[in-house]
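User: Can you write out an input/output pair for a complex, sequences first and structure second?

Assistant: Here is one pair. Inputs:
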Amino acid sequence: MASIVHDRDNTLERPGQRAPLVTGGHDLHGVTEVVCRVAESRTAPAAWYLTMGVSAALLAALGAMIGYLFFEGVGVWGLNNPVGWGFDITNFVFWVGIGHAGTLISAILYLFRQKWRTGINRFAEAMTIFAVMCAGLFPGIHIGRVWLAFYLFPLPNQMAMWPNFRSPLLWDVFAVGTYFTVSLLFWYMGLIPDLATLRDRAKSKLSAFLYGLFSMGWTGSARHWHRYERAYLILAALSTPLVLSVHSVVSFDFATSVLPGWHTTIFPPYFVAGAIFSGFAMVVMLAIPCRALFGLKDLITLRHLDNMNKVILATGLMVGYAYTTEFFVAWYSGSAWELFAFKARAMGPWWWSYWIMFSCNVFVPQIFWFRWARTNIPVMLVVSMLVNVGMWFERFVIIVTSLSTDFLPSAWDTYWPTWVEAWTMAGSFGLFFFMFGLFCKFLPMVAISEVKAVLPHDAHAPAAGGHGH
Amino acid sequence: MIPADAARQIAKDLAGSAGRCVIAAGARQSAEMHALAAALNQALGNVGKTVRYFAQSERPDHAAAITAAAESLRSADTQAVLILGGNPAYDAPADTKFAEALAASSAQTIHLSLEFNDTSQRCKWHVNRAHFLECWGDVRGFDGTASIQQPLIAPLYDGKSPIELLLWLLGDEKQSGYDAVRETHQTAFSGTDLNWEVALRDGVIANSAWAAADVGRVRLEWVAALAQQAAGAGATTGDVLFALDHKVYDGRFANNGWLQELPDPLTKITWDNAALLSYDDAKRLGMTKNGDRVRIECNGTVVELPGYILPGHASGSVTVTLGYGRSQVGAIARGVGFSVAALRSTSGWLAAHGNVTRGSGSHTLATTQDHHAIDTKLTREREQEVIPLLVREGDLTDFAAHPDFAQHVAHVFHLPQLFPEPTPYDGYKWGMSIDLNACTGCSTCVVACQAENNIPVVGKAEVLRGREMHWLRIDRYFRGQPQDADVKVAFQPMPCQHCENAPCEQVCPVAATVHDTEGLNLMVYNRCVGTRYCANNCPYKVRRFNWFYNHNGPRHPRSRQELTAIQKMGMNPDVTVRSRGVMEKCSFCIQRISQAKITAANEVAKRVTAGEIPAVPAGVAPIADGLLLTACQQACPTQAITFGNLNDHAAQVAKNAADPRSYTILEELNARPRTRYMARLRNTGHSLLKGHNGHDHGPADGHGAPAKHEQPAHS
């Protein structure tokens, strides 16, 4: 148990030598100890209790807000005739976007043999699950007659009515539903060997029973491992297209419409890039406190953060490119409606939201060109938070500005959220952090078995990356 | 001020239409101005052709009459005062102190009134009045033509008509209003040869107009004063003009929710009145936005009310409307608007000279257009760019050169369709045409639609949130900047366009909005879950969402009480009342279409049974053009709205669709709307089409395969 409170700089690329992905000189048992200790400890850091308290309160507020909404009607929100969607769908797209990093890290990086993913994939996947739960909440509660929400599903009924398969909103139901199901399966299956480890180490009967139940009789036999690896590969292959498809389909909600500013073919790649961008920012934002609070700095090293920051920089550039292209195409299309929609974004009544978006998403991540910034914890914490702010505003800008001033000037109107919407949004963060807090405390935050596979070969050698001593 | 060249053009046009034109002076104009109009009409030879004069019966001046009435109330000799209708305690000139005199009067004061208003409150007796649709009576038109007023329904609240009250006071309790009216007309008025049934059927008594009077030549000295007035004009400030409100009139309709929520045709203000003034005056007063209060002082009385910048309003004057701020009024109008009655005196009750300054603070005006929060330079400029695309206007010269100029405004790509038309529309093919030349923006259609389709009134707070429910709105655009002298107003009624390729239908996840075989864009309320996606994707923004229970419902204030039989009569039984969370929109009055089909089918069946015509296959029972009217069409006073079957060549709507003035808006989106507009023509003497030679764009252009023109299909 060497230093778990200090960061070791393992970010330097040294030709001929692999930078270690686990620092601190841990052996196989050491890795198990570092991870399992969190779940096995009877107490938790004070910050965890504080987080859980605040998020539980917000979760309660969410329940109250939803109850109030269901009781009174969607009118308690600030929506109006031209602006039929506001915070609700903004939050939906925001949370779906957050939910992208997990599967990308688990599936795509797995297929590309990016071994550094092992340190972060578990909690990134958990983050995905909880983010998609938050996302799924909003389309569910935003409809006018929630008691008829089942009309959205292709259920057999006496009217022989199908839903409208031409509607992108229906595609959303399938896309998000599939994504959630596959992500949950992927996450849960990855957890099984680690749950078995916790089961085997359990001291109390209750934890032995629960971990035992959910580890589904895992014994770690070669046959188990064989099937596990096969299944993992298959699920990774299934998830990979989903990473691209789910946000593409979400973008179709806008892209297939006729509204200027929505009706844009660039949306699918632009949304996917933005989703990965915000997802990675959220992973970084969560990783920083988790590794500090729960002593995981040897497993989630600076190198992991550095890599994620590079992804943020790259996807941030893509997003910036998309923003610029949109403007170019709006002009080049020759459509005065399109051109006005984009002028209105940057210079119209909502200019401030556009420039919050642009600054946070395009200007701020440029600092990651510098290595010192990519390895500086306070800097990356601030950047990742700003990126999330910027990405939330991106969805707000797309949805609200386009609806607010579309075709006929007579119908233009503004939108301002009510306190109910503000608390519902805060409540969704409560839901997210409450679930994530439970996960941190009671489940293995890092994939123990996978990290063991990437331990430095000479586990007893002093930690490499001596740069900076 | 009319520019000299425009004045010459007008003079030329008038000279060219001598005997076929008319010059009218407004009711607020001076006697001299009316004399001048009369002189011009005489010079143009209009008298006897387009203009007729009638001798006015001798009656006291209104101001003198109301002053005398107030005096008699103060007199101790007056024993009884009978006030038939009206509300003088609210709207009599302030200097008569009518309300105080009425309240303090020792006489037996009796008020016959439809509602318990400010006057009833000050009278000792209130008599319930029958509505004019509940009683017999008679009226005369402006030319003297007499009409017998026939009730449609027995009095719902046992009200008395003025005739019945007077009969009763005269001791003739037995005689009914009907007897009195009939007797009057068959004995005293028209003589025994009046055919009562014919007069009732026709609505008017034939040949009862007054004889035209000869007013002689207008003499020059009658109008001489005008020249002096014109010399001194321009510099005066503080003219306060009193106007009847477009919706609540003099306040008698204040307690009508439909009218309160109806946007004013020009200002689009609901649930309020405002002081209308010019842009320059508003700036001079220090107003920064609409709703900033202005303080008007007339004869020592001060009224503060919200100001509203009305583009095109004359500088130096302020217009205020009557009918608001009543103290004794029903629940709907309580606390609504500002009373300006205190500013009016017997010497100035149409217009007065006052001192107008900036008042304190601001009042929130609920308008349905031009919202302050999105009022930026960019949006204002864009609006000016868009108006010519929506409300297409041309000069007569443009029309003569290019009759189809309106079809060549937008740049339209006609792309080949991937799929054949799913529906042949070979039966009925419903369509609407709206003639912008005829539309005056009066908004009668909006209220007619509201009454027909059980459209809820949502109140000022919800209008402020942008949640008014009108299925049909009148878009009002000002062409030009508010400070411009020659700003022009354009109106465009905007119902559901019933697009053949409707963007709303494609996006609804539950198929709650679908197309029928006659081209109607249907809204299936039972199926709607309220995602609002359809409204977002509607380019015309004509869909309306029920954010709350707007009628009866578990959370509605009225939910705990059963609707009375009379309240139920206020609803149209043929139209579903929509629940919370459901989208709704114009249906082209589908209930009327169904009714017309049933009537037509019954008519055919009757004739088949009678052996007049051979048996016809089921469903072939054409509705004759003109028998089926939508509510808006029926109510339109200028017949700007036409509805009917586009497959029927003889139908007016099909003829309108084939008219060169006919166009659709946002055609470039390929939604293919069934509602067509007919371009507006102005007579300015110079072209209004800037930068267009008339044939640059549109269907005749070579983009892709030209789609076939929107012509009635040949059957």
